[in-house]
Amino acid sequence: GAVVSQHPSWVICKSGTSVKIECRSLDFQATTMFWYRQFPKQSLMLMATSNEGSKATYEQGVEKDKFLINHASLTLSTLTVTSAHPEDSSFYICSASRPDTIYFGEGSWLTVV
Amino acid sequence: AQTVTQSQPEMSVQEAETVTLSCTYDTSESNYYLFWYKQPPSRQMILVIRQEAYKQQNATENRFSVNFQKAAKSFSLKISDSQLGDTAMYFCAFRLTNDMRFGAGTRLTVKP
Questions:
Q1: Do B104 and A102 touch (CB under 8 A)?
Q2: Which own/partner contact pairs does A72-75 have at CB distance under 8 Å and 24+ positions apart?
Q3: Would an 8 Å CB–CB cutoff place B98 in contact with chain A?
């Protein structure tokens, strides 16, 4: 079964509103979680690395004020897309890190209308 | 920053044949992990195989094996006895403790 749960799988929101995506590690404590964005027919682009109890590390070009990441516990990290616009529509996927491997969530499709 | 390169955007193979997907990476680190992930149309990321850089022995998982050349920074994936269900995008990934990067991917089609 899934060891990382991501919710929601699909979300549609109006332009200008905010939407939150949750990433939970179910069977283990994840000190590090990664957030990715994937455009159609492209690879996973690392947005930020989330460490429990500290501020996320954002990749160059990713607006930290727009993509708020919170890793408040060892089993939960959240990504909030603030003031969403149609160009933010994409597939977002998280992963949770164990020492020996990484598990991915099922991903979330965000559509901003 | 680490980079991962997959030079084959698309590949195809006949069912039951063998195919090799290429991956190279660039890093100044000596301890790291390398992965191959499969992404079917569902978009779920499925771990195919993992290799620790400190291990010289190439990893194998059933029909999947890798050729890890640390000095050359090469990490290719060999799929033997290809099956129709192997059709998917395949991503090579490089991981440090707080960093994980993916290559651009190779779209593999297994033909009946």
A1: no
A2: A74/A25, A74/A29, A74/A30, A74/A31, A75/A24, A75/A25, A75/A26, A75/A29, A75/A30
A3: yes
